[in-house]
Amino acid sequence: MKKIKVGIIGTGNIGTDLLIKIQRSDVLQCSIFMGRNPDSIGIRKAESMGVRTSLDSIDAIVKDPSCCEIVFDATSAKAHFYNAPILKKLGKYTIDLTPSQVGKMCVPAINMSECLDVDNVNLVTCGGQAVIPLVDAIMRVHPDTSYVEVVASISSKSAGAGTRANIDEFTQTTKDAIISLANAPKAKAIIVLNPAEPPMLMHNTIYAKIDRPDIDRLRDEILSAAEKIQDYVPGYKVTLGPAAERGRVTTMIEVVGLGDYLPKYSGNLDIITCAAVRVAEEYAGNRILKMGIRR
Amino acid sequence: MSEILFFDSTLRDGSHAVKHNLVADDISQYCQNADSIGFHTIIVGHGNGLGASSLQVGESAISDEQMLTSARKNLQKTRLGVFLIPGFGTIRDDLSPAIELGVDLVCVASHCTEADVTKQHIEYSRQMGRDAYGILMMQHRASKEQLLQEALKMQDYGAQGVILMDSAGSSVVDETAERISYLVERLNIAVGFHAHNNLGLAIANSYVAIKAGASIIDGTVRGFGAGSGNCQLEVLAGLLWKLKINSHLDFFGLLNLSENIVAKMMLKPQGITATGLVSGLAGIFSGFAPHVEEAAKRYGVCPWELFIELGRRKMVAGQEDFIVDVAMYLAQRKKTGEDGYQIEALL
Fold it and tell me: Which domains does chain B possess?
C-alpha cells in the first residue's frame, strides 16, 4: 500500500515517540526527522532506524520541500510561531503538538472531521487530550454545569525541555480548549510535575460543579467517551467516579503509555502522540483515496 | 552580617489556616497596621498563590483582584508581593492583571527539582520592571547539590534571590544550616528560608539560616499558616533583639499586630497537632492537612496513616486530588486486614 511521507520537527520526547509510532503505520512513512540538538538521543534513534535526519530543523524542508507532505511540529510554542507560516507557504498539512494555539484546536474523539481540510491543526496539550472528551460528555449531559476544573499530574521524567519551557502556554491552552472545544462556561487547568521514583503514571482529575447531577447518565456518557479514546490510546482508563459530593462531580483518569520511547509511565506522551498519528492517518487515508481515484 | 529582609507571608500562608476565607476587611486592616513594621514585602493572596483558588486546593472567599486591591490601598512603605506557582496561575489570566494592580514583587515557586518551569514567570516579572524571587518548595526532598543546581537556574532567569521553602516543616537545624551556607557561598543573589513548625523547629531553623548567611526570612505573624504554622516573626524578632542582632523591625508594633489583628483572624490558636506532627515526619506539604482530615473521616481511615502513605508515594504540593485515591486504597486495605504502618516506614 502506498504511504504518505511525513516529517517530524523536534527530536525530544514527543518527536521521538511519534517517530516510533509512525513506524507501525500502514499509511504513514517518516521520511525526515529534524531538530537542532546534535546530542539528541532521538537523532541517534532515528539514524539507527535508517530514517533520514537533519540538524537544520525546518530549513531542511525549505531546502527540499518534496521530502514530506505532512509535518509534525514537536518543538515549542515559540518555535512553532516561527515554523507555522513557513509550513503554510509550502502547503504542508501541519500537525502541531506544541501549545501554541496557532492552528485549529483538535481532539480526535470530538472534532477530527473538522480538522482535515485546514492547513494547521493544534493538538492542545496532553492534559487537554486526556480530559476534553470527558468534559464534553459531562457538558452534553449537564449543560447546566457552572464550572469545570482539571488537574493533570505528570512525572518529571516524561516532561521534556519543551514542555517545561512552555508550562505557561500548557496551562493556559488546556483551560482555553476546555472552554472552546467542550463548551464549559468557566474553567481552570492545573498542571503538576512530580519527580517521584519510580515515576508516577499520568493522572488526571476532572471536577465539575453541578447542582443536581444525574450520575447514571453521566457515568454512561463518560465511559463511552473513554472508550472512544481507548480506540487510539489503549492505556486510557477511568479509575474513579464519576462520584458526586457537595455539588461537585469528580472523575479520575490514568493513562498508561505503550512504552514506545519512554517507559509506560509516560502516558502523557502517548495521549498526544497517538492523537497526532490518528489525525495524520485519517488525512493520509483520504489523500491515498483521492490519488487512487485520480489514477 | 548583611541586613535581613523580612518577607511577611501572614496573609498568604495564613489563608491555608482559615481555608482561604480571608475577606477584604481582614486584608485592609492587616496592611494598615503592618505597613510601618519594617517588612521588606507583604505577600498577599491565596495560600497556593495567584490563580490557585480551585476545587483542588480550596476556593478563596474573594478574588485575587479584590485581595490585591485591598492591600495596595493600604501599603505605602512596604512592597506588595504575590506568590505564583507555574501550572496554577498563568501570565495572561493572573500575573499580568496582578502587575496591573500594582504588585511590586513576585515570588515564583516550583517543586525543589523543577525550577525550569519558573523561567517564563521570572523573566516576565523582571521585564515588567518588578522584583522577582525564586522559591524552591518542599526543599527537604532534594540534596544541597540539587538545590544549588535549581537555584542557579533561577539566578540565570533573573531572580534577585532564592528562598528554600520547608513546605512540610520537616527540616532539622544542622541540615538547614548546611544547605543555606552551601547556597550562600555559591550564588550571587540573596538566599532565604521559609520555615514550617511541624517539628517545632521553625524559629530554630530560621535562626540557624540567618547564622549561615541567609539574608531573607519568610515567616508569618503569630505563625499564622498552613498545618502547624510558620516561623512566628515576632518571636524571631524577639530572639534577635535578645541576641543584639538588629532586625530593623518595630518590635512592639509587631506584638500589637499579633495580639490585636492576627489573633482575631485566626479560627484557633496555631499549634502542633498530632496530625501536623505526622505530616512533618511524612514530609508532606502542610496545606494537605484539612483535605487529609476530611478524607480520613469520609473513608474511615486513620489520618496519620494517610499522611504516611502520601509521603511514601512522594506527593508534591498541588496533588491534593491523590488524597482521596490513597484514602480509598487504605480503606480497601483495612477491609482485607493488612497490617497498619509502623513508624519505620518513614525512615
Answer: 5-265 (3.20.20.70), 274-346 (1.10.8.60)
Check if A49 contacts B (Cβ < 8 Å): no
The domains located in chain A, with CATH, are: 4-124+271-294 (3.40.50.720), 126-266 (3.30.360.10)
The shares of helix, strand and coil residues in chain A, as percent rounded to the nearest 5, are: 45, 25, 30
User: Within 13 A of B192's CA, how many CA atoms are on the CB side?
Assistant: 26
Q: Does the beta-carbon distance from B322 to A149 stay under 8 Å?
A: no
**B239-252 confidence digits (pLDDT tens):** 999 999 988 999 99
ipTM for the predicted complex comes to 0.91
For residues A8 and A15, is the Cβ–Cβ distance under 8 A? yes
Catalytic site includes residue A68: no
DSSP B277: H
Contacts of A194 (CB under 8 A, 6+ apart): A153, A154, A155, A156, A200, B111, B314, B315, B316, B319
Report pLDDT digits (tens) over B11-45. 999 999 999 999 999 999 999 999 999 999 999 99
Q: Which of A147, A164, A169, A254 to mutate to test the interface with B (most CBs of B within 10 A)?
A: A164
Q: Give, in order, the Cα–Cα distances in Å from A94 to each of A99, A194, B170, B270.
A: 14, 31, 49, 57
